[in-house]
Amino acid sequence: MRFSSLFTPSSSTHTGAAAILLGFSLWASSARAQDRTTEAGEAAITDPNQECTPYTYTPVASLASSFPANWVQPAVIVPNDTEALNKWNSIKSSIPTNISVKGTVKGDFSNFTPTYPTSDPDCWWTYDKCDTPKLAGLSPDVINIPEPLSLGYGFDDGPNCSHNTFYDFLSTNKQKATMYYIGSNIQNWPLEGQRALADGHEICVHTWSHPYLTAVQSESVFAELWYTMKMIKLAIGVTPTCMRPPYGDIDDRVRAVAKALGLRVIVWQSDSFDWEVGSTPGVTPATVDANYQSLINAAKNGTYATSGTIMLTHELNNFTMSEAIKWYPALKAAFTAIVPVGVGYNITQPYLETNYSLPSFSQYVGGQLTATGSASASSASVSSDAQGGSKAGAAMGMPTASNGLIVSIVTVAALLGGVARVLA
Ligand SMILES: *[C@@H]1O[C@H](CO)[C@@H](O)[C@H](O)[C@H]1NC(C)=O
Ligand SMILES: *[C@@H]1O[C@H](CO)[C@@H](O)[C@H](O)[C@H]1NC(C)=O
Ligand SMILES: *[C@@H]1O[C@H](CO)[C@@H](O)[C@H](O)[C@H]1NC(C)=O
Ligand SMILES: *[C@@H]1O[C@H](CO)[C@@H](O)[C@H](O)[C@H]1NC(C)=O
Ligand SMILES: *[C@@H]1O[C@H](CO)[C@@H](O)[C@H](O)[C@H]1NC(C)=O
Ligand SMILES: *[C@@H]1O[C@H](CO)[C@@H](O)[C@H](O)[C@H]1NC(C)=O
Ligand SMILES: *[C@@H]1O[C@H](CO)[C@@H](O)[C@H](O)[C@H]1NC(C)=O
Protein backbone atom coordinates (compact mmCIF):
# COMPACT_ATOMS: atom_id res chain seq x y z
CA MET A 1 0.00 0.00 0.00
CA ARG A 2 2.96 2.27 -0.56
CA PHE A 3 0.99 4.73 -2.76
CA SER A 4 -1.47 5.50 0.04
CA SER A 5 1.25 7.55 1.66
CA LEU A 6 0.89 10.03 -1.18
CA PHE A 7 -2.36 11.28 0.30
CA THR A 8 -2.55 13.85 3.00
CA PRO A 9 -5.59 15.91 4.09
CA SER A 10 -4.26 18.83 2.01
CA SER A 11 -4.85 16.80 -1.14
CA SER A 12 -8.60 17.11 -0.63
CA THR A 13 -8.94 19.68 -3.41
CA HIS A 14 -7.91 16.91 -5.82
CA THR A 15 -10.53 14.43 -4.73
CA GLY A 16 -11.20 13.12 -8.21
CA ALA A 17 -7.53 12.55 -8.92
CA ALA A 18 -7.15 11.11 -5.45
CA ALA A 19 -9.87 8.56 -6.09
CA ILE A 20 -8.31 7.59 -9.39
CA LEU A 21 -4.91 7.38 -7.80
CA LEU A 22 -6.22 5.35 -4.90
CA GLY A 23 -7.73 2.95 -7.39
CA PHE A 24 -4.40 2.73 -9.17
CA SER A 25 -2.66 2.32 -5.85
CA LEU A 26 -4.76 -0.72 -5.01
CA TRP A 27 -4.17 -2.17 -8.45
CA ALA A 28 -0.45 -1.44 -8.32
CA SER A 29 0.12 -3.03 -4.95
CA SER A 30 -1.76 -6.16 -5.90
CA ALA A 31 -0.02 -6.29 -9.29
CA ARG A 32 3.31 -6.01 -7.55
CA ALA A 33 2.40 -8.84 -5.21
CA GLN A 34 1.13 -10.87 -8.14
CA ASP A 35 4.04 -10.82 -10.58
CA ARG A 36 3.40 -14.20 -12.19
CA THR A 37 5.95 -13.85 -14.98
CA THR A 38 9.34 -14.41 -13.34
CA GLU A 39 10.96 -16.81 -10.93
CA ALA A 40 11.64 -13.98 -8.49
CA GLY A 41 8.06 -12.77 -8.73
CA GLU A 42 6.66 -16.22 -7.94
CA ALA A 43 9.19 -16.74 -5.16
CA ALA A 44 8.03 -13.53 -3.46
CA ILE A 45 4.40 -14.63 -3.08
CA THR A 46 3.58 -15.54 0.52
CA ASP A 47 -0.12 -16.44 0.36
CA PRO A 48 -0.39 -20.18 -0.48
CA ASN A 49 -3.76 -19.65 -2.21
CA GLN A 50 -2.22 -17.03 -4.46
CA GLU A 51 0.82 -19.25 -5.08
CA CYS A 52 -1.49 -22.03 -6.23
CA THR A 53 -3.58 -19.88 -8.57
CA PRO A 54 -2.60 -20.96 -12.11
CA TYR A 55 -0.68 -18.60 -14.39
CA THR A 56 0.54 -18.82 -17.98
CA TYR A 57 4.27 -18.95 -18.69
CA THR A 58 4.44 -18.68 -22.45
CA PRO A 59 7.77 -20.46 -23.15
CA VAL A 60 6.27 -23.63 -21.64
CA ALA A 61 2.58 -23.12 -22.49
CA SER A 62 3.29 -22.50 -26.17
CA LEU A 63 4.95 -25.92 -26.53
CA ALA A 64 2.26 -27.96 -24.78
CA SER A 65 1.56 -29.93 -27.96
CA SER A 66 5.17 -31.18 -27.94
CA PHE A 67 4.62 -32.94 -24.62
CA PRO A 68 2.41 -35.81 -23.42
CA ALA A 69 -0.95 -35.02 -21.80
CA ASN A 70 -0.52 -33.49 -18.35
CA TRP A 71 -0.75 -36.09 -15.55
CA VAL A 72 -2.04 -38.86 -17.86
CA GLN A 73 -0.55 -42.26 -16.89
CA PRO A 74 1.50 -43.50 -18.52
CA ALA A 75 3.12 -40.92 -20.80
CA VAL A 76 3.44 -41.97 -24.45
CA ILE A 77 5.70 -40.70 -27.23
CA VAL A 78 3.97 -37.73 -28.86
CA PRO A 79 2.86 -38.66 -32.42
CA ASN A 80 5.33 -37.42 -35.04
CA ASP A 81 7.92 -36.42 -32.42
CA THR A 82 10.82 -37.56 -34.57
CA GLU A 83 13.50 -36.57 -32.06
CA ALA A 84 11.91 -38.73 -29.36
CA LEU A 85 11.19 -41.58 -31.79
CA ASN A 86 14.77 -41.53 -33.10
CA LYS A 87 16.12 -41.62 -29.55
CA TRP A 88 13.82 -44.47 -28.58
CA ASN A 89 14.76 -46.43 -31.69
CA SER A 90 18.45 -45.89 -30.94
CA ILE A 91 18.23 -47.29 -27.39
CA LYS A 92 15.55 -49.95 -27.88
CA SER A 93 17.97 -52.79 -28.53
CA SER A 94 19.63 -52.24 -25.14
CA ILE A 95 16.38 -52.73 -23.22
CA PRO A 96 15.71 -56.32 -22.08
CA THR A 97 12.56 -57.90 -23.49
CA ASN A 98 12.62 -60.94 -21.22
CA ILE A 99 11.65 -59.04 -18.07
CA SER A 100 7.89 -58.94 -17.47
CA VAL A 101 5.83 -55.79 -17.26
CA LYS A 102 4.22 -56.14 -13.83
CA GLY A 103 0.88 -55.23 -12.26
CA THR A 104 -0.86 -51.88 -12.74
CA VAL A 105 0.36 -48.26 -12.90
CA LYS A 106 -1.40 -47.73 -9.57
CA GLY A 107 0.73 -50.46 -7.98
CA ASP A 108 -1.59 -53.44 -7.79
CA PHE A 109 0.75 -56.41 -8.18
CA SER A 110 -1.64 -59.01 -6.70
CA ASN A 111 -1.97 -60.86 -10.00
CA PHE A 112 1.77 -60.84 -10.63
CA THR A 113 3.61 -61.66 -7.41
CA PRO A 114 2.09 -65.15 -6.85
CA THR A 115 3.93 -66.46 -9.91
CA TYR A 116 7.10 -64.36 -9.56
CA PRO A 117 10.19 -66.47 -8.63
CA THR A 118 11.34 -65.81 -5.06
CA SER A 119 14.90 -65.57 -6.41
CA ASP A 120 13.87 -62.13 -7.76
CA PRO A 121 15.50 -62.51 -11.21
CA ASP A 122 14.61 -58.94 -12.23
CA CYS A 123 16.10 -57.25 -9.14
CA TRP A 124 12.69 -55.76 -8.42
CA TRP A 125 13.00 -53.22 -5.59
CA THR A 126 9.32 -53.38 -4.68
CA TYR A 127 9.59 -57.14 -4.16
CA ASP A 128 12.59 -57.33 -1.81
CA LYS A 129 14.40 -53.96 -1.90
CA CYS A 130 16.90 -55.34 -4.44
CA ASP A 131 19.32 -52.53 -5.37
CA THR A 132 22.13 -54.46 -7.04
CA PRO A 133 21.08 -55.26 -10.60
CA LYS A 134 21.30 -58.81 -11.88
CA LEU A 135 21.52 -57.79 -15.52
CA ALA A 136 25.12 -57.12 -16.54
CA GLY A 137 26.15 -53.54 -17.24
CA LEU A 138 23.82 -51.77 -14.82
CA SER A 139 25.06 -49.79 -11.82
CA PRO A 140 23.71 -50.38 -8.32
CA ASP A 141 21.07 -47.92 -7.19
CA VAL A 142 22.21 -45.13 -4.89
CA ILE A 143 20.65 -45.81 -1.49
CA ASN A 144 22.94 -43.94 0.90
CA ILE A 145 25.73 -41.37 1.24
CA PRO A 146 29.25 -42.86 1.55
CA GLU A 147 30.51 -40.24 4.02
CA PRO A 148 29.94 -41.02 7.74
CA LEU A 149 26.95 -39.50 9.54
CA SER A 150 25.79 -37.75 6.37
CA LEU A 151 22.19 -37.42 5.29
CA GLY A 152 21.30 -37.25 1.59
CA TYR A 153 18.59 -34.63 1.79
CA GLY A 154 15.88 -34.51 -0.85
CA PHE A 155 12.19 -34.17 -1.62
CA ASP A 156 9.94 -35.97 -4.08
CA ASP A 157 6.93 -34.89 -6.13
CA GLY A 158 7.58 -31.16 -6.60
CA PRO A 159 7.39 -28.55 -7.64
CA ASN A 160 4.41 -27.97 -5.38
CA CYS A 161 2.74 -24.63 -6.08
CA SER A 162 2.74 -23.71 -2.36
CA HIS A 163 6.42 -24.36 -1.70
CA ASN A 164 7.64 -20.82 -0.98
CA THR A 165 7.48 -21.11 2.81
CA PHE A 166 9.52 -24.31 2.63
CA TYR A 167 12.06 -23.02 0.09
CA ASP A 168 12.39 -19.79 2.08
CA PHE A 169 13.15 -21.94 5.13
CA LEU A 170 15.84 -23.85 3.25
CA SER A 171 17.38 -20.59 2.01
CA THR A 172 17.37 -19.03 5.46
CA ASN A 173 19.15 -22.10 6.78
CA LYS A 174 21.61 -22.15 3.86
CA GLN A 175 20.48 -25.71 3.14
CA LYS A 176 20.50 -27.30 -0.32
CA ALA A 177 18.62 -30.44 -1.27
CA THR A 178 17.88 -32.76 -4.18
CA MET A 179 14.49 -32.05 -5.74
CA TYR A 180 12.92 -35.00 -7.57
CA TYR A 181 10.56 -33.18 -9.90
CA ILE A 182 7.50 -34.52 -11.72
CA GLY A 183 7.32 -33.35 -15.37
CA SER A 184 3.58 -32.64 -15.23
CA ASN A 185 4.09 -30.47 -12.13
CA ILE A 186 6.82 -28.48 -13.85
CA GLN A 187 4.55 -27.95 -16.86
CA ASN A 188 1.96 -26.49 -14.47
CA TRP A 189 4.41 -24.59 -12.23
CA PRO A 190 7.51 -23.80 -14.33
CA LEU A 191 8.58 -20.75 -12.34
CA GLU A 192 8.44 -22.79 -9.13
CA GLY A 193 10.74 -25.27 -10.88
CA GLN A 194 13.13 -22.45 -11.77
CA ARG A 195 13.35 -21.56 -8.10
CA ALA A 196 15.12 -24.84 -7.30
CA LEU A 197 17.96 -23.97 -9.66
CA ALA A 198 18.06 -20.34 -8.56
CA ASP A 199 18.29 -21.45 -4.93
CA GLY A 200 21.13 -23.89 -5.67
CA HIS A 201 19.26 -27.16 -5.22
CA GLU A 202 19.96 -30.24 -7.33
CA ILE A 203 17.23 -31.33 -9.75
CA CYS A 204 16.46 -34.97 -10.64
CA VAL A 205 13.76 -36.61 -12.77
CA HIS A 206 10.76 -38.15 -10.99
CA THR A 207 8.80 -39.12 -14.14
CA TRP A 208 6.08 -37.34 -16.11
CA SER A 209 2.99 -38.77 -14.38
CA HIS A 210 4.22 -40.73 -11.32
CA PRO A 211 3.20 -44.29 -12.27
CA TYR A 212 4.64 -47.53 -10.90
CA LEU A 213 7.27 -47.85 -13.62
CA THR A 214 7.57 -51.65 -13.56
CA ALA A 215 3.93 -51.66 -14.73
CA VAL A 216 4.72 -49.51 -17.77
CA GLN A 217 5.79 -50.78 -21.23
CA SER A 218 9.41 -49.90 -22.05
CA GLU A 219 8.53 -47.34 -24.71
CA SER A 220 6.36 -45.51 -22.16
CA VAL A 221 9.05 -45.78 -19.46
CA PHE A 222 11.21 -43.99 -22.01
CA ALA A 223 8.48 -41.35 -22.54
CA GLU A 224 8.03 -40.83 -18.78
CA LEU A 225 11.74 -40.06 -18.37
CA TRP A 226 12.50 -38.38 -21.71
CA TYR A 227 9.70 -35.81 -21.56
CA THR A 228 10.50 -34.95 -17.94
CA MET A 229 14.11 -34.28 -18.95
CA LYS A 230 12.83 -32.17 -21.86
CA MET A 231 10.39 -30.26 -19.66
CA ILE A 232 13.08 -29.51 -17.07
CA LYS A 233 15.30 -28.25 -19.89
CA LEU A 234 12.52 -26.11 -21.37
CA ALA A 235 11.24 -24.64 -18.12
CA ILE A 236 14.41 -24.50 -16.02
CA GLY A 237 17.26 -24.62 -18.55
CA VAL A 238 19.17 -27.73 -17.47
CA THR A 239 19.02 -31.45 -18.25
CA PRO A 240 19.26 -33.73 -15.18
CA THR A 241 21.42 -36.86 -14.98
CA CYS A 242 19.61 -38.52 -12.08
CA MET A 243 16.19 -40.07 -11.52
CA ARG A 244 14.14 -41.50 -8.68
CA PRO A 245 11.48 -44.10 -9.52
CA PRO A 246 8.08 -43.30 -7.97
CA TYR A 247 7.49 -45.59 -4.96
CA GLY A 248 11.04 -46.90 -5.55
CA ASP A 249 9.41 -49.23 -8.08
CA ILE A 250 12.24 -50.28 -10.36
CA ASP A 251 13.63 -53.45 -11.92
CA ASP A 252 16.42 -54.20 -14.39
CA ARG A 253 14.19 -53.37 -17.39
CA VAL A 254 13.39 -49.90 -16.04
CA ARG A 255 17.03 -49.46 -14.94
CA ALA A 256 18.14 -50.21 -18.51
CA VAL A 257 15.92 -47.41 -19.87
CA ALA A 258 17.24 -44.97 -17.25
CA LYS A 259 20.81 -45.95 -18.06
CA ALA A 260 20.25 -45.45 -21.78
CA LEU A 261 19.11 -41.90 -21.01
CA GLY A 262 22.17 -41.24 -18.84
CA LEU A 263 20.18 -41.17 -15.58
CA ARG A 264 21.65 -42.42 -12.28
CA VAL A 265 19.05 -44.16 -10.09
CA ILE A 266 18.56 -42.83 -6.55
CA VAL A 267 16.35 -44.68 -4.07
CA TRP A 268 16.56 -44.56 -0.22
CA GLN A 269 17.14 -46.62 2.93
CA SER A 270 14.25 -45.44 5.09
CA ASP A 271 10.84 -43.96 4.40
CA SER A 272 9.26 -41.21 6.50
CA PHE A 273 5.86 -42.25 5.09
CA ASP A 274 4.96 -38.55 5.09
CA TRP A 275 3.30 -39.12 1.69
CA GLU A 276 0.77 -41.61 3.10
CA VAL A 277 -0.77 -39.30 5.70
CA GLY A 278 -4.29 -38.51 4.60
CA SER A 279 -4.37 -41.27 1.99
CA THR A 280 -3.53 -44.46 3.89
CA PRO A 281 -5.66 -45.33 6.92
CA GLY A 282 -3.52 -45.75 10.02
CA VAL A 283 -0.66 -43.58 8.80
CA THR A 284 -0.91 -40.46 10.96
CA PRO A 285 1.28 -37.46 11.70
CA ALA A 286 2.46 -39.41 14.77
CA THR A 287 3.66 -42.21 12.47
CA VAL A 288 5.76 -39.75 10.49
CA ASP A 289 7.14 -38.14 13.64
CA ALA A 290 8.15 -41.59 14.89
CA ASN A 291 9.94 -42.29 11.60
CA TYR A 292 11.91 -39.04 11.75
CA GLN A 293 12.74 -39.78 15.40
CA SER A 294 13.88 -43.27 14.51
CA LEU A 295 16.27 -41.90 11.87
CA ILE A 296 17.67 -39.50 14.45
CA ASN A 297 18.04 -42.28 17.04
CA ALA A 298 19.88 -44.39 14.48
CA ALA A 299 22.22 -41.49 13.72
CA LYS A 300 22.91 -41.11 17.43
CA ASN A 301 23.49 -44.81 18.17
CA GLY A 302 26.20 -45.35 15.58
CA THR A 303 24.16 -46.91 12.77
CA TYR A 304 25.60 -44.37 10.29
CA ALA A 305 29.06 -44.10 11.81
CA THR A 306 30.78 -45.49 8.72
CA SER A 307 28.40 -44.37 5.98
CA GLY A 308 25.44 -42.04 5.87
CA THR A 309 21.92 -42.57 4.65
CA ILE A 310 18.96 -41.32 2.65
CA MET A 311 15.37 -41.01 3.90
CA LEU A 312 12.36 -40.58 1.63
CA THR A 313 10.58 -37.25 2.24
CA HIS A 314 8.28 -35.13 0.07
CA GLU A 315 7.45 -31.69 -1.27
CA LEU A 316 3.97 -33.07 -1.79
CA ASN A 317 1.81 -30.83 0.39
CA ASN A 318 1.67 -28.53 3.40
CA PHE A 319 1.97 -31.42 5.86
CA THR A 320 5.06 -33.03 4.33
CA MET A 321 6.83 -29.67 4.03
CA SER A 322 5.83 -28.66 7.57
CA GLU A 323 7.28 -31.93 8.89
CA ALA A 324 10.54 -31.24 7.05
CA ILE A 325 10.73 -27.81 8.69
CA LYS A 326 9.81 -29.16 12.11
CA TRP A 327 12.45 -31.89 12.09
CA TYR A 328 15.29 -29.98 10.46
CA PRO A 329 16.93 -28.73 13.70
CA ALA A 330 16.98 -32.26 15.15
CA LEU A 331 18.43 -33.68 11.91
CA LYS A 332 21.10 -30.96 11.92
CA ALA A 333 22.03 -31.93 15.46
CA ALA A 334 22.14 -35.67 14.74
CA PHE A 335 24.07 -35.66 11.43
CA THR A 336 27.40 -33.99 10.74
CA ALA A 337 26.45 -33.18 7.13
CA ILE A 338 23.11 -32.75 5.35
CA VAL A 339 23.75 -32.62 1.62
CA PRO A 340 22.10 -33.00 -1.79
CA VAL A 341 22.73 -36.56 -2.96
CA GLY A 342 24.90 -35.43 -5.89
CA VAL A 343 27.10 -33.48 -3.47
CA GLY A 344 27.43 -36.63 -1.36
CA TYR A 345 28.92 -38.36 -4.43
CA ASN A 346 31.05 -35.43 -5.67
CA ILE A 347 28.85 -35.13 -8.76
CA THR A 348 30.09 -31.62 -9.45
CA GLN A 349 28.56 -31.58 -12.91
CA PRO A 350 24.95 -32.63 -12.27
CA TYR A 351 23.50 -31.62 -15.65
CA LEU A 352 24.26 -32.31 -19.30
CA GLU A 353 24.97 -28.59 -19.70
CA THR A 354 28.64 -28.42 -18.76
CA ASN A 355 28.56 -24.77 -17.69
CA TYR A 356 26.74 -25.50 -14.45
CA SER A 357 28.22 -27.14 -11.35
CA LEU A 358 27.56 -28.18 -7.76
CA PRO A 359 30.18 -28.17 -4.99
CA SER A 360 32.00 -31.38 -4.07
CA PHE A 361 31.28 -32.92 -0.67
CA SER A 362 34.36 -31.38 0.91
CA GLN A 363 33.60 -27.97 -0.60
CA TYR A 364 30.03 -28.16 0.68
CA VAL A 365 30.94 -29.12 4.24
CA GLY A 366 33.64 -26.45 4.08
CA GLY A 367 30.94 -23.86 3.52
CA GLN A 368 30.77 -23.53 -0.27
CA LEU A 369 27.10 -24.34 -0.71
CA THR A 370 26.29 -22.59 -3.92
CA ALA A 371 26.42 -23.90 -7.42
CA THR A 372 28.54 -21.98 -9.86
CA GLY A 373 27.29 -21.03 -13.29
CA SER A 374 23.73 -20.47 -14.27
CA ALA A 375 21.30 -21.78 -16.80
CA SER A 376 19.60 -19.87 -19.55
CA ALA A 377 15.98 -20.12 -18.42
CA SER A 378 16.54 -18.48 -15.08
CA SER A 379 19.65 -16.41 -15.64
CA ALA A 380 17.61 -13.22 -15.61
CA SER A 381 15.95 -14.08 -12.36
CA VAL A 382 18.42 -16.06 -10.33
CA SER A 383 17.92 -13.96 -7.25
CA SER A 384 14.96 -15.14 -5.25
CA ASP A 385 15.35 -13.33 -2.00
CA ALA A 386 12.50 -11.65 -0.20
CA GLN A 387 13.01 -8.47 -2.23
CA GLY A 388 11.90 -10.17 -5.42
CA GLY A 389 8.46 -8.59 -5.41
CA SER A 390 9.62 -5.00 -5.15
CA LYS A 391 12.40 -5.61 -7.67
CA ALA A 392 9.74 -6.83 -10.04
CA GLY A 393 7.74 -3.67 -9.35
CA ALA A 394 10.75 -1.52 -10.16
CA ALA A 395 11.38 -3.50 -13.32
CA MET A 396 7.84 -2.71 -14.46
CA GLY A 397 8.75 1.00 -14.27
CA MET A 398 6.29 1.79 -11.54
CA PRO A 399 6.76 4.98 -9.61
CA THR A 400 7.89 4.46 -6.06
CA ALA A 401 7.60 6.75 -3.06
CA SER A 402 11.19 7.84 -3.59
CA ASN A 403 10.29 9.23 -7.01
CA GLY A 404 8.67 12.16 -5.19
CA LEU A 405 5.24 12.84 -3.88
CA ILE A 406 3.63 14.56 -6.84
CA VAL A 407 1.98 12.35 -9.40
CA SER A 408 0.32 14.50 -12.03
CA ILE A 409 -3.05 13.92 -13.62
CA VAL A 410 -1.20 13.25 -16.86
CA THR A 411 0.77 10.49 -15.21
CA VAL A 412 -2.38 9.06 -13.69
CA ALA A 413 -4.04 9.06 -17.08
CA ALA A 414 -1.04 7.30 -18.59
CA LEU A 415 -1.10 4.77 -15.80
CA LEU A 416 -4.82 4.21 -16.32
CA GLY A 417 -4.04 3.57 -19.96
CA GLY A 418 -1.70 0.90 -18.69
CA VAL A 419 -4.47 -0.52 -16.52
CA ALA A 420 -6.81 -0.58 -19.50
CA ARG A 421 -4.20 -2.47 -21.54
CA VAL A 422 -3.68 -4.94 -18.71
CA LEU A 423 -7.41 -5.52 -18.37
CA ALA A 424 -7.96 -5.84 -22.12
C1 LIG B 1 1.75 -36.85 -38.30
O1 LIG B 1 2.29 -36.58 -39.57
C2 LIG B 1 1.47 -37.02 -40.64
C3 LIG B 1 2.24 -36.83 -41.92
O2 LIG B 1 2.87 -35.56 -41.95
C4 LIG B 1 0.17 -36.22 -40.60
O3 LIG B 1 -0.69 -36.66 -41.61
C5 LIG B 1 -0.51 -36.45 -39.26
O4 LIG B 1 -1.67 -35.62 -39.17
C6 LIG B 1 0.43 -36.10 -38.13
N1 LIG B 1 -0.19 -36.49 -36.86
C7 LIG B 1 -0.20 -35.69 -35.82
C8 LIG B 1 -0.87 -36.23 -34.59
O5 LIG B 1 0.32 -34.58 -35.80
C1 LIG C 1 17.29 -61.90 -20.06
O1 LIG C 1 18.17 -62.11 -21.12
C2 LIG C 1 19.53 -61.77 -20.82
C3 LIG C 1 20.32 -61.93 -22.07
O2 LIG C 1 19.72 -61.20 -23.09
C4 LIG C 1 20.03 -62.65 -19.72
O3 LIG C 1 21.37 -62.28 -19.39
C5 LIG C 1 19.16 -62.50 -18.51
O4 LIG C 1 19.54 -63.41 -17.51
C6 LIG C 1 17.70 -62.73 -18.86
N1 LIG C 1 16.92 -62.32 -17.72
C7 LIG C 1 15.94 -63.08 -17.23
C8 LIG C 1 15.20 -62.49 -16.05
O5 LIG C 1 15.63 -64.13 -17.70
C1 LIG D 1 19.79 -47.73 16.63
O1 LIG D 1 18.52 -47.09 16.53
C2 LIG D 1 17.67 -47.61 15.53
C3 LIG D 1 16.44 -46.71 15.47
O2 LIG D 1 15.84 -46.59 16.73
C4 LIG D 1 17.35 -49.05 15.82
O3 LIG D 1 16.52 -49.58 14.80
C5 LIG D 1 18.65 -49.83 15.87
O4 LIG D 1 18.38 -51.16 16.27
C6 LIG D 1 19.60 -49.22 16.88
N1 LIG D 1 20.88 -49.88 16.76
C7 LIG D 1 21.68 -50.09 17.81
C8 LIG D 1 22.99 -50.73 17.50
O5 LIG D 1 21.34 -49.81 18.92
C1 LIG E 1 0.50 -28.66 -3.20
O1 LIG E 1 0.28 -28.39 -1.83
C2 LIG E 1 -0.99 -27.85 -1.56
C3 LIG E 1 -1.01 -27.45 -0.09
O2 LIG E 1 -0.91 -28.59 0.72
C4 LIG E 1 -2.05 -28.87 -1.93
O3 LIG E 1 -3.32 -28.34 -1.71
C5 LIG E 1 -1.90 -29.23 -3.40
O4 LIG E 1 -2.79 -30.25 -3.75
C6 LIG E 1 -0.49 -29.67 -3.71
N1 LIG E 1 -0.37 -29.82 -5.17
C7 LIG E 1 0.05 -30.93 -5.76
C8 LIG E 1 0.11 -30.90 -7.24
O5 LIG E 1 0.38 -31.92 -5.15
C1 LIG F 1 0.97 -24.49 5.85
O1 LIG F 1 -0.23 -23.77 5.75
C2 LIG F 1 -0.34 -22.69 6.67
C3 LIG F 1 -1.73 -22.10 6.48
O2 LIG F 1 -1.90 -21.63 5.17
C4 LIG F 1 0.75 -21.69 6.41
O3 LIG F 1 0.71 -20.65 7.35
C5 LIG F 1 2.11 -22.37 6.51
O4 LIG F 1 3.14 -21.47 6.16
C6 LIG F 1 2.16 -23.57 5.59
N1 LIG F 1 3.41 -24.29 5.79
C7 LIG F 1 4.21 -24.61 4.77
C8 LIG F 1 5.44 -25.35 5.13
O5 LIG F 1 3.97 -24.35 3.61
C1 LIG G 1 34.53 -37.16 -2.70
O1 LIG G 1 35.77 -36.48 -2.72
C2 LIG G 1 36.51 -36.63 -1.51
C3 LIG G 1 37.75 -35.74 -1.62
O2 LIG G 1 38.44 -36.05 -2.77
C4 LIG G 1 36.85 -38.09 -1.31
O3 LIG G 1 37.54 -38.26 -0.09
C5 LIG G 1 35.57 -38.92 -1.28
O4 LIG G 1 35.87 -40.29 -1.21
C6 LIG G 1 34.75 -38.65 -2.52
N1 LIG G 1 33.47 -39.34 -2.39
C7 LIG G 1 32.99 -40.19 -3.32
C8 LIG G 1 31.68 -40.83 -3.01
O5 LIG G 1 33.60 -40.44 -4.34
C1 LIG H 1 24.98 -22.64 -20.45
O1 LIG H 1 24.89 -23.34 -21.68
C2 LIG H 1 23.61 -23.29 -22.30
C3 LIG H 1 23.69 -24.13 -23.55
O2 LIG H 1 24.08 -25.42 -23.24
C4 LIG H 1 23.27 -21.86 -22.62
O3 LIG H 1 21.97 -21.81 -23.18
C5 LIG H 1 23.32 -21.03 -21.35
O4 LIG H 1 23.09 -19.67 -21.66
C6 LIG H 1 24.65 -21.16 -20.65
N1 LIG H 1 24.62 -20.46 -19.39
C7 LIG H 1 25.63 -19.76 -18.94
C8 LIG H 1 25.43 -19.08 -17.63
O5 LIG H 1 26.69 -19.67 -19.55
Automatic annotation (TrEMBL):
<keyword id="KW-0146">Chitin degradation</keyword>
<keyword id="KW-0325">Glycoprotein</keyword>
<keyword id="KW-0119">Carbohydrate metabolism</keyword>
<dbReference type="GO" id="GO:0000272">
    <property type="term" value="P:polysaccharide catabolic process"/>
</dbReference>
<keyword id="KW-0732">Signal</keyword>
<keyword id="KW-0134">Cell wall</keyword>
<keyword id="KW-0336">GPI-anchor</keyword>
<dbReference type="GO" id="GO:0071555">
    <property type="term" value="P:cell wall organization"/>
</dbReference>
<keyword id="KW-0964">Secreted</keyword>
<feature type="signal peptide">
    <location>
        <begin position="1"/>
        <end position="33"/>
    </location>
</feature>
<dbReference type="GO" id="GO:0004099">
    <property type="term" value="F:chitin deacetylase activity"/>
</dbReference>
<keyword id="KW-1133">Transmembrane helix</keyword>
<feature type="domain" description="NodB homology">
    <location>
        <begin position="149"/>
        <end position="348"/>
    </location>
</feature>
<keyword id="KW-1003">Cell membrane</keyword>
<dbReference type="GO" id="GO:0006032">
    <property type="term" value="P:chitin catabolic process"/>
</dbReference>
<feature type="transmembrane region" description="Helical">
    <location>
        <begin position="405"/>
        <end position="423"/>
    </location>
</feature>
<comment type="similarity">
    <text>Belongs to the polysaccharide deacetylase family.</text>
</comment>
<dbReference type="InterPro" id="IPR002509">
    <property type="entry name" value="NODB_dom"/>
</dbReference>
<dbReference type="GO" id="GO:0009272">
    <property type="term" value="P:fungal-type cell wall biogenesis"/>
</dbReference>
<keyword id="KW-0961">Cell wall biogenesis/degradation</keyword>
<keyword id="KW-0812">Transmembrane</keyword>
<dbReference type="GO" id="GO:0098552">
    <property type="term" value="C:side of membrane"/>
</dbReference>
<keyword id="KW-0472">Membrane</keyword>
<dbReference type="GO" id="GO:0005886">
    <property type="term" value="C:plasma membrane"/>
</dbReference>
<keyword id="KW-0449">Lipoprotein</keyword>
<dbReference type="GO" id="GO:0046872">
    <property type="term" value="F:metal ion binding"/>
</dbReference>
<keyword id="KW-0378">Hydrolase</keyword>
<dbReference type="InterPro" id="IPR050248">
    <property type="entry name" value="Polysacc_deacetylase_ArnD"/>
</dbReference>
<dbReference type="Pfam" id="PF01522">
    <property type="entry name" value="Polysacc_deac_1"/>
</dbReference>
<keyword id="KW-0479">Metal-binding</keyword>
<keyword id="KW-0624">Polysaccharide degradation</keyword>
<protein>
    <recommendedName>
        <fullName>chitin deacetylase</fullName>
        <ecNumber>3.5.1.41</ecNumber>
    </recommendedName>
</protein>
<dbReference type="InterPro" id="IPR011330">
    <property type="entry name" value="Glyco_hydro/deAcase_b/a-brl"/>
</dbReference>
<keyword id="KW-0170">Cobalt</keyword>
